[in-house]
Amino acid sequence: MGIEEITGITVCCNTKALFETAYLSVRQFHPDLQIIIIDGSDPGDPCAAYVRGLASSLTTVLQPGYNIGHGRGMCAGIDFAKTKYALIFDSEIEMIKSPVLEMLAMMEEDTFGVGYIEEKTAFDGFEWGVHPHHKREGWMRYLHPMFQLINIANYRKFHPYVHHGAPCYLTMLDIHKRGLSAKILKQFPGLGHSSGKGWNWAGIPREHIRHNTRGTRDVRVKKHLPEIEAGWVTNKGQV
Length: 239
What we know:
Layout: E1 6-12, H1 16-29, E2 34-39, H2 46-52, E3 59-62, H3 70-80, E4 85-89, E5 93-95, H4 100-106, E6 113-121, E7 140-151, H5 152-155, H6 169-177, H7 181-184, E8 185-187, E9 209-211, H8 215-222
């Protein structure tokens, strides 16, 4: 197995500086990786022009002309990919040492995905403990979309990613209900958030992937916009 079996998928929207860092850092380590960019930027935003200029035989650019959202964008990229595996990465990450081939080596035939797993996520997609009703429920493992390698055929066996602040939550819930979380979701050692603090996690320096949990949200706040676009879940504690 090699990099030719993987398509990178990333979603961005009106965040040129953040996305440029993410894209160039991945390209530094994987110049021959097929990458699909789903860019929901406004047509006149600098990010749209930058992404459009990246189109090549190795970089496919999809620009719907509106903010498609993280979950729907990932679904579009997965549908467009032709390889066995998809490497999904946030526009807020920076690759400082590539773990991709090591992650690929962890994939078995039934593996859904390898990446950063938040071990204690409530069934509604929030960190467990944020809401009172969580105390009456269990929790599930959540393969985070900040950086995940998935088997596309196995992804299609479960609920697709959705338009939500935690876009993988219904997929993870489906896997959990079938009793497969411990079997087909694999944690890659050392991956996780490198900044911020949640109910069940704390950001620390990372060896492979730097992930700023508030990157996109801070960009929106500086533009006097809500942290998350209207219609998305905005309660604190979202994974």
